[in-house]
Amino acid sequence: MSTEKSNTEKHFLCDDHDIWADEIRFFEVGREKVMVWRDDDETLYAYSATCPHQDRDLEETGKRECVCGPHDDDKTLTCTAHSWEFDLESGDGLNPSGPQLNEYEIGVENGEIFVVINGGASND
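-> structure tokens emitted (124 positions)
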């Protein structure tokens, strides 16, 4: 039997109605910065707001467009620091393929949006 305590908890971000369809918002969760996107169908997605290339802050460098390939502009986020592109529905790298954004569990409870971050999101 394991006595290790789980470091997983829900972090409430905002009211459900605070993020509109096709809107991206950024939140500080402990030492993590989280990017939340709600698509046109009202589905929520949550990713690390840090580009895996050179740890660039996507709130500062992220742009909603495709600059390097035949991808859907509406569902592509480009880090303008070095033109790395990511699919907002999966977090997968489009250019280059392979790297991806770290995805977090996201949901709505009692009218509030929450994310679940495993470990490291201490509010210290």
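Residues 58-61 form the longest helix (4 residues).
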